[in-house]
Amino acid sequence: MISTMHYVAVSLAMLLIGTVGLLTRRNIVIILMSIELILNAVNINLVAFSKHHGNAAGQVFAIFVIAVAVAEAAVGLGILLALYRNRETVQVDEIDLLKW
Hints:
Helix 1 (4-24) packs antiparallel against helix 2 (28-53) and helix 2 (28-53) packs antiparallel against helix 3. This protein is mainly α. The chain has three helices and no strands. The protein has one domain (4-87): Orthogonal Bundle (Helix Hairpins), CATH 1.10.287.
């Protein structure tokens, strides 16, 4: 039987991997994937605790988080394509559009 603690452990591992990827990588695609991994870790916790407490509010909130993640991915990839067309790079260190 899989308990709530198993879900929390998997979620913690995903959160740690996503945080390390977010802080250490310089490629924008990997940074966006790390953000998605963090959001999926949150969704696992929401659904697990929703099931544990017998309340559907966490599952409904997880659907809203998924919708926000999809919108973030679409906007992020659109910005990434525009940056790549202008600068021909996806490295965070080499993008300095706000500098004069």
